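Regression test case RT-17, inverse folding.

Input:
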C-alpha cells in the first residue's frame, strides 16, 4: 500500500514509525514543489488533533506570529517561597509577611507578584531594581514584575495603592 501525494507514491513501510522526514520523502521521489501548498490545515492532519506528541519538543514559527489567547496560571501563596516557573505558573497572588527568594535567572523568563496586604516582603537573591533599591510595601495591594536576561532579575514595582 502507498500514500499518494501529487501522483507520487510513498510506501507505508517508509513511514510506519510515524516519523515523516525529508530523507523518506526524497527517497520516494517526491519533490518539495510537488506538494500543492505549504499550508497546514485540519484537513491535512489526520483526525484534526494536534497534540504535543505530534509536534517536536521545540516549535519555531518564522516571521510575525499573532497569539490570540494566553491564560496565565495564578498560584496563591501565604508563606515564604521561591517561584517555580516550570510548575506553578507566572502570576503569584500573595498575602502576609514573607520572604520571596528569586529563582535561577533564565533568559526570557518573567513572573508577576500581586501582594494583597500592607505587610512586608523581604526579597532574597539578586534583583536589579528600577530606581536602585527595593520598594517599601504599601498599605494596599501592590504589583511587582520581574524579567530575566539569563544573568540577572530586573524588578519593577508596576503599581501600588490598588483598592
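Golden output:
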Amino acid at each position: 500500500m502507498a500514500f499518494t501525494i501529487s501522483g507520487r507514491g510513498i510506501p507505508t513501510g517508509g513511514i510506519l514509525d510515524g516519523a515523516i522526514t525529508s530523507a523518506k520523502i526524497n527517497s520516494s521521489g517526491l519533490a518539495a514543489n510537488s506538494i500543492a501548498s505549504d499550508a497546514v490545515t485540519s484537513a491535512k492532519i489526520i483526525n484534526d488533533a494536534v497534540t504535543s506528541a505530534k509536534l517536536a519538543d521545540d516549535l519555531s514559527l518564522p516571521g510575525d506570529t499573532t497569539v490570540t489567547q494566553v491564560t496565565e496560571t495564578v498560584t496563591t501563596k501565604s508563606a515564604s517561597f521561591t517561584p517555580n516557573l516550570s510548575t506553578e505558573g507566572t502570576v503569584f497572588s500573595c498575602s502576609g509577611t514573607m520572604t520571596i527568594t528569586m529563582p535561577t535567572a533564565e533568559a526570557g523568563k518573567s513572573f508577576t507578584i500581586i501582594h494583597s496586604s500592607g505587610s512586608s516582603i523581604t526579597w532574597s537573591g539578586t534583583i536589579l531594581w528600577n530606581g536602585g533599591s527595593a520598594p517599601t510595601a504599601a498599605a494596599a495591594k501592590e504589583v511587582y514584575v520581574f524579567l530575566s536576561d539569563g544573568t540577572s532579575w530586573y524588578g519593577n514595582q508596576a503599581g501600588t495603592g490598588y483598592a
